[in-house]
């Protein structure tokens, strides 16, 4: 696989930035991550770049996702990356299970690492206390703090710009994020030994793409109160599986709650606001993480009942962590055949194939695309002919409609939203 290079401006102009914050981790005096309206978070310059800072950014930026993985040996590996084991189950702690996105496996694994394996904490995303429409990365060190982050937040978030929080601690930290966050964090760790030493376990969520802040604004219109009020809470998942998208408002001295189903919120609103980069992503399941967790969508759903998590163990370190959480009574899990992944996540499989066709269309039209991988080519080959054609022709249509040949000016949100 050849490593393509591009300077930061070219990465932004070609819609390649994932918003992970790896650049801000490697040159923190030059870049901070800032909130935008229609994309994910983006690098904002505190001072001008020079050839030294540009080079450092290029060394860690996962935007072109040049694969460091060996070529896959099977369609299973092509679709899902390294798979040592697959498990399905849930947190033993019923409150964690109820509050979490799926079955609370991630929160349970992080809690087990802190309480029983001497970890300092977990670096992860939670709603901003001062504004529940925004996210921030923080370190949690106990059950209460971890629970504040349980549940998926379908809005911009970056982990890597906060990696400095893990380096000062005496013990190791769990790092939890989206696939691009974990790829970015591991890139940073290659150049910052202090990050590598303290990143004791990486856990990725599965991710079909990050909706922008405009998506959240549209969602809030649907979830608005009967009279003008102050937003106290915004939750996208949890309180059952998959849980409702819901708001809690203060109107005078009254509390009002609004909710819509996950299917309505994701299907009718949020998924239409995913940043373009997510449509060209080769890794929707966190292939670089020690452990990846998603929804076992093959399991019949009973609305707003407690859920289950689907867990992929990818490394020996991940295997040890899952086994320990099971032995210590934090996780109840059952081993699954790896092929269950195709039934659980058919959309992510077809997306991985489509990404190869999309990249072909982009390169043909002279637009820089993420590196085409053998893995996504294998998935593309497994698609029906109509889907193969659609991945190429549909992208050409999008290039025109979305004006992808042109750089789009970044619409920054006000300064108060920077560097959360
Ligand atoms: C944008 C987005 C798209 C997703 N797409 C899919 C999909 O296509 N298929 C699928 O199966 N699952 C998807 N998920 C993941 C899924 O919803 C659950 O997060 C996953 O099953 C883990 O559930 P859990 O109960 O074990 O995790 P929990 O115990 O609830 O823990 C979730 C962890 O994820 C972290 N987190 C939440 N939001 C973000 C975020 N935006 N960025 C980084 N970290 C975050 C939290 O801090 C928390 O530590 C998506 C999630 C997001 C945020």
CATH fold group of the largest domain: Aspartate Aminotransferase, domain 2
Shape: globular
What is the rounded Rg? Answer: 20 Å
Oligomer: single chain
Which ligands appear in the coordinates?
Answer: flavin-adenine dinucleotide
Please give the number of β-strands: 13
Which segments are poorly predicted (pLDDT under 50) over 5 or more consecutive residues? none
Q: Judging by the overall fold, what is the CATH architecture of the largest domain?
A: 3-Layer(aba) Sandwich
Query: Could you name the CATH class of the largest domain?
Result: Alpha Beta
Describe the overall structure.
The chain is of the alpha+beta class and 420 residues long. It has 2 domains: 8-70 and 349-417, no CATH class; 83-211 and 271-344, Aspartate Aminotransferase, domain 2, CATH 3.40.640. It has helices at 8-13, 22-26, 51-60, 75-80, 94-99, 105-116, 143-149, 164-167, 179-191, 193-198, 213-222, 262-269, 276-279, 316-327, 340-344, 346-364, 374-381, 385-401; strands at 31-34, 42-45, 85-91, 121-127, 135-140, 173-177, 199-205, 230-235, 245-251, 254-260, 291-294, 309-313, 331-336. The strands form 3 sheets. It has an 8-stranded mixed sheet with strand order 5-4-6-7-11-12-3-13, with helices on both faces. A 3-stranded antiparallel sheet has the order 8-9-10. The chain has a two-stranded antiparallel sheet with strand order 1-2. Helix 16 (346-364) crosses helix 17 and helix 16 crosses helix 18. The radius of gyration is 20 Å and the shape is globular. The model has no long low-confidence stretch (mean pLDDT 94). The site of flavin-adenine dinucleotide has 34 residues, from helix 6, strand 4, strand 6 and strand 11.
């Amino acid at each position: 696989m050849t490593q393509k290079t591009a300077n930061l401006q070219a990465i932004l102009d070609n819609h390649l930035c994932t918003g992970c914050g790896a650049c801000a981790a490697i040159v923190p005096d030059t870049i901070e991550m800032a909130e935008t309206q229609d994309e994910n978070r983006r690098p904002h310059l505190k001072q001008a770049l020079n050839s030294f800072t540009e080079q450092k950014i290029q060394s860690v930026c996962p935007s072109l996702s040049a694969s460091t993985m060996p070529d896959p040996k099977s369609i299973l590996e092509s679709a899902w990356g390294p798979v040592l084991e697959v498990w399905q189950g849930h947190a033993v702690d019923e409150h964690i299970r109820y509050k979490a996105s799926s079955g609370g496996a991630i929160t349970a694994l992080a809690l087990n690492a802190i309480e029983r394996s001497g970890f300092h904490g977990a670096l992860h995303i939670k709603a901003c206390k001062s504004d529940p429409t925004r996210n921030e990365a923080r370190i949690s060190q106990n059950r209460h703090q971890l629970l504040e982050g349980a549940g998926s937040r379908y809005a911009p978030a970056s982990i890597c710009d906060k990696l400095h929080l893990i380096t000062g601690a005496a013990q190791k930290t769990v790092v939890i994020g989206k696939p691009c966050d974990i790829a970015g964090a591991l890139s940073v760790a290659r150049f910052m030994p202090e990050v590598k030493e303290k990143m004791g376990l990486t856990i990725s969520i599965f991710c079909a793409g990050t909706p922008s802040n405009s998506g959240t604004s549209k969602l809030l219109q649907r979830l608005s109160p009967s009279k003008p009020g102050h937003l106290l809470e915004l939750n996208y998942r949890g309180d059952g599986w998959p849980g409702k998208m819901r708001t809690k408002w203060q109107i005078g001295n009254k509390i009002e709650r609004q909710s819509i189903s996950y299917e309505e919120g994701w299907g009718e609103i949020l998924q239409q606001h995913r940043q373009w980069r997510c449509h060209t992503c080769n890794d929707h399941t966190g292939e670089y993480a020690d452990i990846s967790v998603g929804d076992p969508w093959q399991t019949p759903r009973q609305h707003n009942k407690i859920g289950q998590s689907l867990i992929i163990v990818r490394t020996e370190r991940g295997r040890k962590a899952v086994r320990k959480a099971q032995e210590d009574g934090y996780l109840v899990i059952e081993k699954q055949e790896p092929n269950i992944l195709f039934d659980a996540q058919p959309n992510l499989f077809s997306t991985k194939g489509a990404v190869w066709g999309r990249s072909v269309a982009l390169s043909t039209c002279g637009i820089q695309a993420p590196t085409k991988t053998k893995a996504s080519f294998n998935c593309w080959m497994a698609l029906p002919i109509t889907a193969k054609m659609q991945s190429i022709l549909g992208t050409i249509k999008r290039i025109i409609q979305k004006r992808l040949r042109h750089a789009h000016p970044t619409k920054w949100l006000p300064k108060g939203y920077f560097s959360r």
